[in-house]
Amino acid sequence: MYLPLFWLGVFFLISGAYSVRTVDKVASKPQQSITIPCSYDNNYKQNRMYLCKGNAWLSCNIIAHDGEEKENVEVTHHPTQNIFTVTMRNVQPTDAGSYWCAVAIGGIWTADEKAHFHLSVTEDPDLSVERSVVSGDVGGNMSVQCRYSNTYSSKKKSWCSFKDPKCSSVGGSVAPAGTKSQIRDDGAGTLSVEMMGVKETDTGWYWCEVGDLQIPVYLNITQHAAITIPTTTTCNYSGCVKESATPTFDEGTEGTDHLPKGALIGVSVTFGLLLLLTIIGVLAWREQNKQKEDYLNITPQDHRQNEHSASSEVEYNSVVFKKRNSERRLHQSHCPAVEDDHTIYSSVVNI
C-alpha cells in the first residue's frame, strides 16, 4: 500500500517540472521591492496563477493569486507574454525562504505546474542590478549593469532571456534572443551587458547570472518618434524641383513631450497668471479713462446751470416792523416825538 503512495508522491513532484520556469536564487535588500518573473507554456493562458511559500511543494502555503490585492505581495498575469510576475514590496528578513510560482490545473490526478525559487534578504546582496527596468528605442543600444560581490568574482557569468533557454556567457557576441550584444566582466564587481540594434520584439524579461545567483531585468523597447518631412514639387519649362518643408513630428511623440512634466505645468501656470494680470490691468485702465471722460464732458453751460440752481434755492424776504397808532399815541403822550427816519427795517433771508 505504501509503494503506490510513494510513486504517487513522486508523480506529483516531477509532474510539470518544466512547464513553469523562473530564476533559482535571488536576493534583495530589506525594505525594498523585488519582482520575480515566471513563464509558462502557451496552453495555460486561461489558468489561474498563484504564489506559494514553503520548502516542500506539498506543504507550502498559498500567499496570493493573480488578481488579488495584497498589502505587500502582488501576482500579475501577462498573457500576451506567457508570463506572470510576483512582486514583493517592503521585503523583510522574515520574507526570506523558498517560494513556488504555480499554475492551477484543477484536476484530481494532475498536479499544478510549478517552479521553485529561493529569496535571500540581506543588507549587502551578492548580486544586484543598477536598474531593474531599462527603456530604449528600436534600433538603438541598451546597457545593463549588474554588480556582484568578491565572493563571486571567479564564478561563471551569463546573460539570459526568458524567451530563449540559451544563455550568452562573458565574451559572447550574440544575445539569447538573437540580438547582437557584448558581455564584459571588469573583474572588479561589474558585469556589463551591451545590446546593439535592439528590436521591439526584444522587449521582455532577462536576467544576469553569476554562479548560482540570478537577478531579473526588464527591457522596455519602444518605437522611436518618426519624422515626417513634407515635400512640394515645382515645375516650369526648365524642369521640376522638389522643396522640403519644415520637419514635423508625429503627434504625441515629439513637441512638448520632450519637456519634463513639471516644466510644462510651470509654464502653464505662469502663462495663466500673466493672462489674468493683463485682463485686470486692461479693466482698470478702461475704468480710469471712463471717469476722466465723464469729468471732461461737463460743459461751461452745465456749470452755469449748476450755479443758477444753487442760487435759485436762496429766498430773500423783507419784513418791516411798524408801530400801531394806539401805541404811537401812547408814546406821544409820554415821550417826545420820534421822527419817521428812525423806523427800523430788518431783512430775513431763508436759505
From TrEMBL:
GO CC annotation: plasma membrane
Cell compartments where the protein resides: Membrane
Domain Ig-like: residue ranges: 125-228
The keyword Membrane is annotated on this UniProt entry: yes
InterPro entries: CD300_family_receptors, Ig-like_dom, Ig-like_dom_sf, Ig-like_fold, Ig_sub, Ig_V-set
Presence of keyword Ion transport: no
MF annotations from Gene Ontology: transmembrane signaling receptor activity
Secretion signal span: 1-19
Domain of life: Eukaryota
UniProtKB keywords: Membrane, Signal, Transmembrane, Transmembrane helix
Coiled coil: none
Ranges that cross the membrane: 263-285
Protein name from the UniProt record: CMRF35-like molecule 1
Gene that specifies this protein: LOC116218467
